[in-house]
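Reply to thread "Modeling small-molecule complexes from scratch"

Following up on the discussion above, here's a worked example others can learn from. I took a protein sequence and the SMILES for magnesium ion and predicted the complex. Inputs first:
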Amino acid sequence: MSPPVFAVLGHPNKGKSSIVATLAHDDSVAIGPVPGTTVRCRSYPMKVDGQVLYTLVDTPGFQRSRRALQWLREHETTAARHAEVVQQFVETHRGGDLFRDEVELLTPVLGGAGILYVVDGSVPYGSEYEPEMEILRWTGRPRMALVNPIGAADHVAEWREALGQYFSVVRVFDALTAESDKQVELLRTFGHLDEAWSGALEHAVAVLEQERSRRRARAARILADTLAEMLTLTLSRNLPPDGDPEPEKPALERRFQEQLRSLESRCRDRVQAVYEHGRVTRVEQELEALREDLFSEETWLRFGLSRSQLATLGAGSGAVLGATIDAAVGGASFLLGSLIGAGLGAAAGWIGANQLVEAKVASIPLGGRKLVVGPTRNRSFPHVVLGRARLHHFLVARRAHARQDRMDCGADAAGQLAPPTDAQRRGLEGCFERLRGGRDPELVSTELARAIEDVLASDEGSGPERLAGC
Ligand SMILES: Nc1nc2c(ncn2[C@@H]2O[C@H](COP(=O)(O)OP(=O)(O)OP(=O)(O)O)[C@@H](O)[C@H]2O)c(=O)[nH]1
Ligand SMILES: [Mg+2]
């Protein structure tokens, strides 16, 4: 059974290519604000593991539908022969300039594709659309209309009324915001249009749903490996026998931070590649810029832990209140207040480990000295890194492939993710501790991946309203 093929058709500049990009999960589809962006038909197979589930054909918009319909009517014999007349139209005008776009867009339909007719539900309905809808009716192919609201105005009801006269199924489908559930629902509806497709499309839906969990697992593994690398990262450089180490420290600390940043950025790229979003550019505060903030309450709450979890985490360490408090006051006095409120031990424990990293002088076994940086002991660090990664994953996993804007992983979006549950937090913290202890990183990383996968799954359960505006 060959996979179903759908041709996406309509007026120029109504979001046809955007719908192809979203349904084929392909961000290479040419989308543009100017009518006439698509001039040739092009097929985009939706593949998972090399297996084609279905194919979308992007087409140019109708240009001369009124004249084309006039030609068809002039050659009409009986209604039973409408499809043959359309075939004759295409053969007659192939290679000519007059109906170049009509010939191009009708070719896949005559080749057996189902029809997805796209209109913009934010502009009023007008009779200029009728000739193209009538031509599509003449082809006799299974067809469905999609109302894609490009702007804010709402003319969906009048479109439904008109489209209902030409198409047995009409659905509102926003190419830019349609998440996987909506896409799956649409595929199921295609399956009802033609018996011959239903088996293939049910199969496609099952594969896509499986693929969603597999992608989440792959992303979790990437995040876990990155965290393991970050938490065990150590850099060193040999010192001259009598040299003063102090001037050397900032450069090594900087290199350490740069490495953390590049590990995080590589992690983002890999997660985006898992979701076929390799081209998306992101707006995100640099990890390095967050350094000053790593122990501010705002950062913590923003990137994933609740107030009580903060206090619990703090209670785990035995460091002593002292000079470290002086160091912390400034950016973190509010947090300090709440932690002290929760118990001095908690505050002391947590703040005692606030330094992200500090270069230290160590002796080399065979003589000489070296400067060593890392691994970081900052207890908030992995949570903040994970919080940032969760937010990025959340946005990437639900992002429609038609979107061309930059992805904003900024602070406004971050506050929307719910903190992990206490059980999740304990699981994560256990893994972080063991990684810090340097024991069996491979094994811990596998365990961490499972813990992260669980958190990512909870994030995906967050309703779309949680991230309104992102
Ligand atoms: N806001 C919003 N913009 C959309 C939506 N769908 C498409 N657009 C924008 O509308 C413009 C046209 O989209 P395309 O997908 O290129 O439209 P098309 O029908 O393929 O256009 P042609 O190939 O020129 O016929 C682009 O700037 C898209 O970003 C939508 O659902 N919402
Ligand atoms: Mg196009």
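What I'd highlight from this example: Residues 214-467 form one domain. Residues 16-17, 37-38, 58 surround magnesium ion (ligand 2) (CB under 6 Å). Questions welcome below.
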